[in-house]
Amino acid sequence: MQYRFSVAIAATLLLSCPASAQVAIDWHNAEAVAREALQRHPALSAIGARIDAAEERTRAAGAYPNPMVMAGVQDQQIDLTRDEMMTMYMVGASQTIPRKGRRDALKHGAQLDVEQLRLQARSLREEIRRDALFAYYDLASADSQATATEQLAAAVDAIVAAARFRYEAGTTIQAEVIRAQLQRSNIEHQLLTIAGRRRIAASRLSAQLGLPVTTEIPRIHLAHSTERLEIASAPVVPDDHPALAAVRNELERREQDIRLARLIAKPDWNLEASYGMRPEQKDMFSVTARIELPLRRKSVIEPQIRAAMAERDAAALRLEDVRRKLLADLGVAYSQHAEANKQLLLHEQVLVPQSKLAFDSSLAAYQSGRDNFESVLATEMEWLRLEVDYYDFLALHIKAITDFEALQRGARGGASAGMNAYGASPSATPASSSMSGEVMR
């Protein structure tokens, strides 16, 4: 009995856990995180349902409408007495017969609607994947900057120790000790700023994955090997791009609208057959054909044709507009990637090593009394700024590649235009710049 009770409790707890918590996510694999975001995103499920609905509508498009049945009495006298020569009991049916051209146009139009949704789904997948990867790389960049800043905090501790030693030896003033301690506090300020950026990126990534914003995401490192990734092709919009295909599909849809508007001049037929019974006389039957007379061409038919043609022309003009916007976004991502490549090469091979060497030299000279405090502080701040900037450019580099690939595979717009060398937003500035100003003061 106790065993069964334990099993029931365990099953209840398992079922009560959210589905998202039951799936382990490999946080150190960007592609695995992006795949998880695609599997969990409700927008893809919604557009999948819309595709299913559109496919069902294709089965009904162009079909014959339901027949009409009728039954009643004709020529019944007002006093309800029956006139054996006139009163007749009748039944009948009528059927509207659409023209084949109209049925074909409706069928083809419904199929184009399905294809339009499928193209939207392709673009949406690329955009969701890109958004998830952007949040991931922002998170990894913040974590890498925090790690580098924590490592450089040890260098600041060495400055504090050297200033305190010189003050105790009577070779410097207490102000240098206080300024060194202030610089150590500025490092903590820098870490708090980076932690804030990390929380924002983590919240965006958790939302993409359908997880609570309080989800604990382990620290991720943006590897230096990321800079070896390259854009493999020139910034050219593929002819089969889903955004272009969607405009072409819309153009074809407008052609079907023109075809349907012109078919108004060739109305559908309606056939009606009825059978009448008069008890004292012979039975009778009737067959009637009806068709609408398209007499009001100028006021009804021609305006609809002109409207459909105008919509087609507008769709044709949008094709080149979409192509140009895609090409511009590809060019932005390509240029961002090229800039980040040059900056990464300069930072890794020249700026960061030189700044570290300058700091080590200044610190050694200060400890031996051969250099002043301002020199040590300036070289330390420059080293920290360049280390932080390196990961900003590394994130810019991989995000430009991600954006470029998303655009070529189907994204309907670029995201690189809102990025600069210091993060995902043009309003963002390097946190170390405020610290540099503090040192200058």
What would you say this structure looks like, in words?
The protein has one domain: Outer membrane efflux proteins (OEP) (Up-down Bundle), CATH 1.20.1600. Helix content is 66%, strand content 8%. The protein has 9 helices and 4 strands. It has a 4-stranded antiparallel beta sheet with strand order 1-2-3-4, with no helix packed on it. Helix 4 packs antiparallel against helix 8.
Query: What is the average of the pLDDT values?
Result: 83
**N-to-C terminal Cα separation, in Å?**
76 Å
Low-confidence stretches are 1-22, 422-441
- The amount of helix comes to 55-70%
DSSP strand content: 5-15%
The CATH class is identified as Mainly Alpha
Mind telling me the C-alpha Rg? 37 Å
Number of strands: 4
CATH architecture: Up-down Bundle
Helical/strand content category: alpha+beta
Count up the helices: 9
CATH superfamily: Outer membrane efflux proteins (OEP)
Stated plainly, the CATH topology is called Outer membrane efflux proteins (OEP)
General shape: elongated
Major beta-sheet overview: 4 strands, antiparallel
* Count of all domains: 1
List the strand order in the largest sheet.
Answer: 1-2-3-4
Secondary-structure element pattern, one letter each? HHHEEHHHEEHHH
Present the secondary structure layout:
Elements lengths: L1 H15 L13 H11 L1 H19 L7 E7 L13 E10 L2 H70 L4 H36 L32 H21 L6 E9 L6 E8 L5 H71 L5 H37 L21 H10 L1
Antiparallel strand pairs: 1-2, 2-3, 3-4
Helix pairs in contact: 2-4, 3-4, 4-5, 4-6, 4-8, 5-9, 6-7, 7-8, 8-9
